[in-house]
Amino acid sequence: MADVAVKRDTDSVETDELSQRVKRAKAGDEDGGGEAGEEPEAENILSGFKTSNILSDSAREKNIFIHGKLADQDAVVILEKTPIREDILAEVFSGSSLKLEMRNDIYSTYRLQAPPHLNEIKTTVVCPATEKHVKKYQRQESFLVEETGKDYQSITLPYIQKQSFSVQWVYNILEKKAEAERIVYEDPDPKAGFVLLPDFKWDQKQVDDLYLIAIVHQRDIRSLRDLTSEHIPLLQNIFQKGKEAILQRYNLPASRLRVYLHYQPSYYHLHVHFTKLGYEAPGCGVERAHLLADVIQNLQSDPDYYKNRTLYFPLRADDGLLSKFKEAGRL
Amino acid sequence: MADVAVKRDTDSVETDELSQRVKRAKAGDEDGGGEAGEEPEAENILSGFKTSNILSDSAREKNIFIHGKLADQDAVVILEKTPIREDILAEVFSGSSLKLEMRNDIYSTYRLQAPPHLNEIKTTVVCPATEKHVKKYQRQESFLVEETGKDYQSITLPYIQKQSFSVQWVYNILEKKAEAERIVYEDPDPKAGFVLLPDFKWDQKQVDDLYLIAIVHQRDIRSLRDLTSEHIPLLQNIFQKGKEAILQRYNLPASRLRVYLHYQPSYYHLHVHFTKLGYEAPGCGVERAHLLADVIQNLQSDPDYYKNRTLYFPLRADDGLLSKFKEAGRL
Questions:
Q1: Is the C-alpha dihedral spanning B318, B319, B324, B328 positive or negative?
Q2: DSSP of A311-328, one letter per residue?
Q3: Quick one: pLDDT at residue A204?
Q4: ipTM of the assembly?
Q5: Full-model pTM
Q6: Which residues from A are below 8 Å from B96, CB to CB?
């Protein structure tokens, strides 16, 4: 299953036309702006979208990742059905039409057609999309890699540095140049502080699939590998204040949360994932996730734990880093 | 997550009224039967449905299991969003309306409202439903528990011992009294040996969801907590020979496997899980799974690692052990 976390890459040029149309839509300037107080309806920018190929899809998760063209630019469009919420059930039951498919004894199945506003599809558009985006969403087989402390220094770190993945979009968030209204909590301290906001994947309409990200203000921590005991106050601060903020805002106590880091992370600026415990968030598997509580415990027992430790993580078949490990005879 | 497979129970009495209405709908006798050749639309039998409570739901899988009343009878209604098919995309894109939610650089998100016939909801009705049906679909919330080495001694261990969970079925396998034909590999050594066989959950029809269990011959290791450095040869033996056997039998190399233990385990006789890396096996989440490679590494660095370590694990709301932790003020 392709990692749904959108890896932001701002080296690309924005479509003036697309951004203008969307910005106007957001400001309510379009003819379809509607009544005062109503949400403006965006011009259906996807009516001109031409599918090139399907990158991946999941029947289990009811989503699809599509590569295509939008206004002559490469784009990736992600569609995902939305969870079914209890609070709209009565409306759904009274306002839908049913087509019977099968009946057998006490069991019967139907195809139900609901009012569209009660059955929306979460849509994400990445445009213009780079080759990196297209590759990211392309479903690939995974391989487990064993990375010693030495491997990190000789293989992974040089690779990361050479790629120079842009995290400008992260800085935009930290500097409130983008997504400022989405911020749930901030501790502005430059050393121990962070910004907490909903992850892209979460539409915030229900807590069942709660997913927030805490992005640290410090800019020199790439990943788990850079963490030492001097970062314990930072990590504890994220844990403590993040949990409190989530309890305040969403009424979800710490015992209902899964709080972890990824290794390898999707982007090399330290961030922590807060997901609801019962929700099998993509990427919460043991091969990639590391409980924040465990990370803190490890650093308390050994300041250089993550310098020396052998770490395991999955890499997709087309990942350049996997090739490096193969070349080094480590796979 | 409730098992979606519908469990049939034919001891129940069919609702004459309901079945008659639905059968007539199927035969096209209803006024809403429509034109010849068209699918008959069932009377919206759910317009009279009254929700009693939600049994479970999955934001990831976009489904919901509802207990309620239909024509004065107990019923379970299951709604599930349908996968997104490639063949209807063009129609969806041209026929939908979009509401902009957010824009940041090249990324934008929308709520898309599609024509209902392109966005149906799979609906199953079990009516009349028995108490067995209702219990089957009832999900329990999970809580994350923090267990120190001391907590294990004072809370968990006494609880396990008092429960005296029977592992006779495990001994039956080890002694070839049961499931002997399912054994994929065995090392009969009483100290370092184990039996490897497919897990119940795997139908062995494809390797996509490969799942095997290695059960140790030693009978005095309950779980991770009992492991010390003296067990390293055992653990390494399981890892090595298990991987080899899987490569031989299923042509799947070690780099495609996820090999781990559970804490808490489902049963208190040491066993190791071998699952395919790309398969998100239930229970492979970081809150419960521990990579075997990590366990070996931990014991190599500290012989008493699992005696002293604080471990985290999820417990269901109805788990007796959760009550013990609550009583002890640890939750």
A1: negative
A2: EEEEEETT-HHHHHHHHT
A3: 92
A4: 0.74
A5: 0.74
A6: 44, 46, 121
